[in-house]
Design a protein that fits this description.
Blueprint lengths: L19 E5 L7 H13 L3 E4 L14 H13 L3 E6 L15 H6 L4 E3 L4 H11 L3 E3 L11 H13 L4 E4 L10 E2 L2 E10 H7 L10 E8 L4 H13 L8 E8 L15 H9 L6 E2 L13 E3 L2 E5 L4 E4 L5
Parallel strand pairs: 1-2, 1-3, 3-4, 4-5, 8-9, 9-10, 10-11
Antiparallel strand pairs: 5-12, 6-14, 7-11, 8-13, 13-14
Helix pairs in contact: 6-7, 7-8
Length: 318
């Protein structure tokens, strides 16, 4: 099996004013107001913005039927004039369509795919099947209150320049208390812990030689994080990792006051499960489901330095 050291990352050309970008909804449906604001923002950078045919469809809790959501993605992949693909939101449903992505076309004509949360399923599939570097970044269903100017600037730089991305540890994040000292370099892969766990045994690429980036938003509590990390460990998915970069683990503040948890919080679970891997772990990165998200390249070389408290990632575009 290939390790990350032997794989050639496929990078897309950086965006330039006048380039076309396509907005799609691979998971849950967005709001029309949010997408309108996202279109306005992207146009302010000189980009020409198009909407996928099924962006505002609804089918249950998803943005249209599976065949329509994957049609919009593959149409964007196959249009040589489209130079980037930006998801409207995460939520639910991207995992249902990853087997039908036209990765052969994307390998021949690479373009970055932007999103996070449920879109992690797509990022993982694109890396596994065509080695495409993608962007863990904010959605086109834009909210100035949630994302804001700082996030907008970070997304613009990640799409339109070839500057490395540096994320600094934030000691106010719950995961900041989890550190295994050291420096590690490898290809950065990951995103949503839930998506990575869901992909185990269903297309999760080899993580040998990788830096694994993890972030999570609370659902049922500490047990869900424990179960996910234990499953990844027991399956062998974490064998050969170079290091772990921990982003935001949100919604666990109340656990400190829960007598049924024996005094444990989210940092205790992360520390218990990850320190036994024997690799550097950098916690406290302000990236995930929280306010003002950065944009982080996935599928490119990255270095974590616990002494400096930094994650440095090479660009996804060339």
């Amino acid at each position: 099996m290939d390790t990350f050291d032997s794989l050639q990352t496929v990078r897309s050309p950086r965006l330039r004013p006048g380039d076309r970008v396509r907005i799609v909804s691979p998971a849950s449906p967005p709001s029309r107001e949010g997408v309108a604001r996202g279109v306005e923002l992207l146009r302010s950078w000189g980009l020409r913005v198009e909407l996928g045919e099924h962006v505002f469809d609804r089918w249950g809790y998803m943005a249209g039927r599976d065949e329509d959501r994957v049609f919009d993605l593959n149409s964007a992949f196959g249009d040589p004039g489209v130079r980037a693909v930006i998801a409207t939101r995460g939520g639910k449903g991207a995992y249902r369509i990853v087997d039908d992505l036209d990765t052969d076309t994307l390998r021949r004509d690479p373009k970055p795919v932007v999103g996070f949360s449920d879109i992690t399923h797509i990022h993982l599939a694109l890396w596994a099947r065509c080695r495409l570097a993608c962007l863990h970044g904010p959605f086109a269903n834009w909210s100035d209150a949630w994302s804001g100017r700082k996030s907008a600037d970070a997304l613009r730089r990640a799409l339109m320049t070839t500057d490395p991305v540096i994320i600094h540890r934030d000691t106010g994040q719950a995961s900041a208390a989890v550190t295994v000292e050291g420096i590690a370099t490898g290809v950065l892969v990951g995103g949503s812990l839930d998506a990575i766990r869901t992909t185990t045994g269903a297309g999760l690429p080899s993580l040998k030689g990788a830096i694994l980036f993890l972030e999570h938003q609370r659902g049922t509590g500490l047990g869900e994080v424990d179960r996910a990390l234990t499953q990844l460990t027991r399956s062998g998915a974490l064998d050969g990792l170079r290091g772990v970069a921990l982003g935001q683990f949100l919604g666990f503040d109340q656990d400190a006051d829960d007598p049924t948890l024996g005094g444990w919080g989210i940092a205790d679970v992360l520390r218990d499960r990850l320190t036994r891997l024997g690799v550097p772990v950098l916690g406290g990165l302000p990236a995930g489901h929280g306010l003002h998200p950065p944009t982080i390249p996935l599928g490119t070389q990255a270095t974590i330095d616990t002494a400096e408290g930094t994650l440095t990632v090479q660009p996804a575009v060339a």
